[in-house]
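Protein of interest.
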Amino acid sequence: MSKDAMKHSNRNYLGVALAIALCACANAASPEEQPAVGSMRVAKAVGKTGAPVEVRYEPTGATVRGQPTTLKLAFVPQIAGSELSVEFPTSDAVSIDSAVSRMAVSKAQRDAVYRRTLIVTPRLGDTAELRVMVWLEAEGGRYFSIFTVPVGK
Protein backbone atom coordinates (compact mmCIF):
# COMPACT_ATOMS: atom_id res chain seq x y z
CA MET A 1 0.00 0.00 0.00
CA SER A 2 1.35 3.46 -0.87
CA LYS A 3 2.03 6.10 1.76
CA ASP A 4 -0.90 8.21 0.49
CA ALA A 5 -3.25 5.23 0.65
CA MET A 6 -2.09 4.45 4.20
CA LYS A 7 -2.63 8.07 5.30
CA HIS A 8 -6.14 8.02 3.80
CA SER A 9 -6.90 4.66 5.45
CA ASN A 10 -5.63 5.89 8.84
CA ARG A 11 -7.75 9.05 8.54
CA ASN A 12 -10.83 6.91 7.88
CA TYR A 13 -10.19 4.78 10.96
CA LEU A 14 -9.55 7.88 13.04
CA GLY A 15 -12.78 9.45 11.73
CA VAL A 16 -14.80 6.34 12.58
CA ALA A 17 -13.27 6.16 16.07
CA LEU A 18 -14.02 9.85 16.65
CA ALA A 19 -17.62 9.42 15.47
CA ILE A 20 -18.13 6.48 17.83
CA ALA A 21 -16.71 8.45 20.76
CA LEU A 22 -18.92 11.46 20.00
CA CYS A 23 -22.03 9.26 19.79
CA ALA A 24 -21.17 7.68 23.13
CA CYS A 25 -20.76 11.11 24.73
CA ALA A 26 -24.00 12.38 23.21
CA ASN A 27 -25.92 9.39 24.61
CA ALA A 28 -24.53 9.86 28.13
CA ALA A 29 -26.65 12.19 30.23
CA SER A 30 -24.78 15.19 31.48
CA PRO A 31 -24.95 15.94 35.21
CA GLU A 32 -27.14 19.00 34.71
CA GLU A 33 -29.76 16.84 32.95
CA GLN A 34 -30.04 14.52 35.96
CA PRO A 35 -32.33 15.48 38.81
CA ALA A 36 -30.85 15.84 42.29
CA VAL A 37 -31.39 12.57 44.16
CA GLY A 38 -32.94 14.40 47.11
CA SER A 39 -35.64 15.88 44.89
CA MET A 40 -36.64 12.50 43.45
CA ARG A 41 -39.52 10.44 44.87
CA VAL A 42 -38.81 7.26 46.85
CA ALA A 43 -40.15 4.01 45.38
CA LYS A 44 -42.08 1.70 47.68
CA ALA A 45 -40.90 -1.81 48.43
CA VAL A 46 -43.40 -4.61 47.87
CA GLY A 47 -43.56 -6.55 51.11
CA LYS A 48 -40.55 -6.60 53.37
CA THR A 49 -37.46 -4.72 52.22
CA GLY A 50 -34.54 -7.08 51.83
CA ALA A 51 -32.05 -5.26 49.63
CA PRO A 52 -30.48 -2.30 51.44
CA VAL A 53 -30.90 -0.06 48.39
CA GLU A 54 -32.96 3.10 48.11
CA VAL A 55 -34.78 3.35 44.78
CA ARG A 56 -35.76 6.85 43.64
CA TYR A 57 -37.59 8.00 40.51
CA GLU A 58 -38.70 11.04 38.58
CA PRO A 59 -41.17 11.01 35.69
CA THR A 60 -40.33 13.61 33.05
CA GLY A 61 -43.50 14.18 31.13
CA ALA A 62 -47.23 13.67 30.81
CA THR A 63 -48.34 10.06 30.87
CA VAL A 64 -50.99 8.89 28.43
CA ARG A 65 -52.03 5.33 27.67
CA GLY A 66 -50.14 4.01 24.67
CA GLN A 67 -47.69 6.94 24.61
CA PRO A 68 -44.05 6.53 25.71
CA THR A 69 -42.70 8.67 28.53
CA THR A 70 -39.29 9.02 30.15
CA LEU A 71 -38.66 7.81 33.68
CA LYS A 72 -35.42 8.67 35.48
CA LEU A 73 -34.30 6.24 38.18
CA ALA A 74 -31.57 6.35 40.82
CA PHE A 75 -30.32 3.46 42.96
CA VAL A 76 -28.47 4.27 46.19
CA PRO A 77 -26.96 1.31 48.09
CA GLN A 78 -27.07 1.77 51.85
CA ILE A 79 -24.07 -0.58 52.25
CA ALA A 80 -21.15 -1.44 49.97
CA GLY A 81 -21.61 -4.58 47.92
CA SER A 82 -19.76 -6.80 45.50
CA GLU A 83 -22.59 -6.50 42.96
CA LEU A 84 -25.78 -4.50 42.48
CA SER A 85 -28.22 -5.98 39.95
CA VAL A 86 -31.47 -4.42 38.77
CA GLU A 87 -34.12 -5.78 36.39
CA PHE A 88 -37.13 -4.02 34.89
CA PRO A 89 -39.56 -6.77 33.87
CA THR A 90 -42.34 -5.96 31.41
CA SER A 91 -45.95 -6.53 32.40
CA ASP A 92 -49.44 -6.19 31.01
CA ALA A 93 -49.70 -2.73 32.57
CA VAL A 94 -46.49 -1.14 31.28
CA SER A 95 -43.94 -1.89 28.58
CA ILE A 96 -40.31 -0.87 28.61
CA ASP A 97 -39.28 0.63 25.30
CA SER A 98 -35.64 1.12 26.28
CA ALA A 99 -33.05 -1.26 24.88
CA VAL A 100 -31.72 -2.00 28.37
CA SER A 101 -34.01 -3.84 30.78
CA ARG A 102 -31.22 -4.71 33.24
CA MET A 103 -28.43 -2.99 35.07
CA ALA A 104 -25.40 -4.47 36.85
CA VAL A 105 -22.76 -2.67 38.88
CA SER A 106 -19.65 -4.42 40.15
CA LYS A 107 -18.37 -3.20 43.49
CA ALA A 108 -21.32 -0.98 44.42
CA GLN A 109 -20.28 1.77 46.82
CA ARG A 110 -22.31 2.82 49.83
CA ASP A 111 -24.29 6.03 49.16
CA ALA A 112 -23.13 6.16 45.53
CA VAL A 113 -25.83 7.00 42.98
CA TYR A 114 -26.34 4.64 40.03
CA ARG A 115 -28.72 5.98 37.43
CA ARG A 116 -30.82 4.58 34.62
CA THR A 117 -33.27 6.31 32.30
CA LEU A 118 -36.10 4.25 30.83
CA ILE A 119 -38.70 4.92 28.17
CA VAL A 120 -41.93 3.30 29.38
CA THR A 121 -45.42 3.09 27.92
CA PRO A 122 -48.57 2.53 30.01
CA ARG A 123 -50.65 -0.12 28.21
CA LEU A 124 -53.93 -0.30 30.11
CA GLY A 125 -54.57 3.26 31.29
CA ASP A 126 -53.01 6.66 31.95
CA THR A 127 -51.40 5.26 35.10
CA ALA A 128 -49.51 2.04 35.77
CA GLU A 129 -46.88 0.59 38.06
CA LEU A 130 -43.43 -0.45 36.95
CA ARG A 131 -41.89 -3.27 38.97
CA VAL A 132 -38.18 -2.99 39.73
CA MET A 133 -36.32 -6.04 41.03
CA VAL A 134 -33.13 -5.27 42.97
CA TRP A 135 -30.38 -7.61 44.21
CA LEU A 136 -27.37 -6.61 46.27
CA GLU A 137 -24.59 -9.04 47.09
CA ALA A 138 -22.87 -7.85 50.25
CA GLU A 139 -21.44 -9.04 53.54
CA GLY A 140 -21.57 -12.70 52.48
CA GLY A 141 -25.25 -12.62 51.50
CA ARG A 142 -27.52 -11.81 48.59
CA TYR A 143 -30.39 -9.45 49.37
CA PHE A 144 -33.47 -9.05 47.17
CA SER A 145 -36.40 -6.62 46.99
CA ILE A 146 -39.14 -5.67 44.56
CA PHE A 147 -40.08 -2.00 44.31
CA THR A 148 -43.01 -0.33 42.57
CA VAL A 149 -42.62 2.88 40.64
CA PRO A 150 -45.83 4.65 39.59
CA VAL A 151 -45.98 5.69 35.95
CA GLY A 152 -48.48 8.49 35.57
CA LYS A 153 -50.54 10.40 38.09
Remarks:
- DSSP finds one helix and ten strands in the chain.
